[in-house]
Amino acid sequence: xxxxxxxxxxxxxxxxxxxxxxxxxxxxxxxxxxxxxxxxxxxxxxxxxxxxxxxxxxxxxxxxxxxxxxxxxxxxxxxxxxxxxxxxxxxxxxxxxxxxxxxxxxxxxxxxxxxxxxxxxxxxxxxxxxxxxxxxxxxxxxxxxxxxxxxxxxxxxxxxxxxxxxxxxxxxxxxxxxxxxxxxxxxxxxxxxxxxxxxxxxxxxxxxxxxxxxxxxxxxxxxxxxxxxxxxxxxxxxxxxxxxxxxxxxx
Length: 251
Ligand code: BGC
Prior knowledge:
- The chain is of the alpha/beta class.
- The longest helix is centred in the last third of the chain and has 19 residues.
- It is built from 8 helices and 15 strands.
- The site of beta-D-glucopyranose has 16 residues, from helix 3.
- Beta-D-glucopyranose (BGC) binds next to helix 3.
């Protein structure tokens, strides 16, 4: 039996692993996504088992599979693990997941996937020049996209600012942990985005991550000169961007 040929995206997060087949013409899910709890500890082998189970729920989908990972990824190998199980470092994730699932799997940094999706289909669609997409969550992820082309693994959440790793001061998890007001958090974000402005002079910042749903509470409080807007795809960005990445890796 031949399947749909649709690409599939998997968003590998700290608490949930979510996946759906993706319609790449429209930049949206082709079927409702499925979520499975992330195994604890989230070792590469345990996660590969969940991916197999997840893909098994979509018997019709047989295209390439993209997977987001919150770390540096080069040639399918994971090279950092700031907020995930340290066993990921050095893991050839493309090979592990391809072997475990029998599918053609390509791994991509989570923020890079979100950045690709926002530039292709979302808030930065059609924007030229340098767009910096940041995801504010447990850590800070970043995607540098110039004229629609991704420069991968920018890792701007780990810029050192005033002697601190930037994500340890300004991620949305820090706002929660330290119970910061929107104003106090926005002051830290101002410091962070000003640093990015100084270094890169981008045309546009796009702010993603779960907290982007509450953009009206803090975006206008960030005092910078560059245009800054909320992501449009919200929690679909990782899945859609990963599926796009996997498909373009195959071209
Ligand atoms: C990681 C990045 C990731 C970001 C968001 C950072 O700690 O180093 O690779 O994109 O968190 O998950």
